[in-house]
Amino acid sequence: MWFMWEIGLTHLETLNLSFTLVTDSGLKKLSGLTALKFDWTGFKNLQSLEICGGGLTDAGVKNIKDLPSLTLLNLSQNCNLTNKSLELISGLNALVSLNVSNSNITNDGLPYLKPLKNLRSLSLESCKVTVAEIKKLQSTALPNLVSFRPE
């Protein structure tokens, strides 16, 4: 395994892991990197995180749940994510945009989003959710939600 500082990336500020087939174990290995501007314990100010198209599961989302400053979270194309992931991130109160499209999220997981009062954009495309349930959530718990998919 190579480390960022070994190839001269000592000032790396952004790391996009989209479509890299990152798995839970790979995500866990990233948590120990010390040459990045952040590590999982030092992510407290991280505002945007995109881990798309990989092998992320609910177990990996446990590493994300303690990032209080996240405003954008894109975990789309991770087909093994379930309602448990929504439960795990339900404490990310700063979230403005959430994308968990193409996962195993169902209507049963939507109530976990109720605490996310700042949520303005929600994408659940190709999930087992209905527009009626999303609209119900919007009208009862998420008044700031202005954009959601499916529509």
UniProtKB/TrEMBL annotation:
<protein>
    <submittedName>
        <fullName>Leucine-rich repeat-containing G-protein coupled receptor 4-like</fullName>
    </submittedName>
</protein>
<dbReference type="Pfam" id="PF13855">
    <property type="entry name" value="LRR_8"/>
</dbReference>
<dbReference type="InterPro" id="IPR032675">
    <property type="entry name" value="LRR_dom_sf"/>
</dbReference>
<keyword id="KW-0675">Receptor</keyword>
<dbReference type="GO" id="GO:0019005">
    <property type="term" value="C:SCF ubiquitin ligase complex"/>
</dbReference>
<dbReference type="InterPro" id="IPR001611">
    <property type="entry name" value="Leu-rich_rpt"/>
</dbReference>
<dbReference type="Pfam" id="PF13516">
    <property type="entry name" value="LRR_6"/>
</dbReference>
<dbReference type="GO" id="GO:0031146">
    <property type="term" value="P:SCF-dependent proteasomal ubiquitin-dependent protein catabolic process"/>
</dbReference>
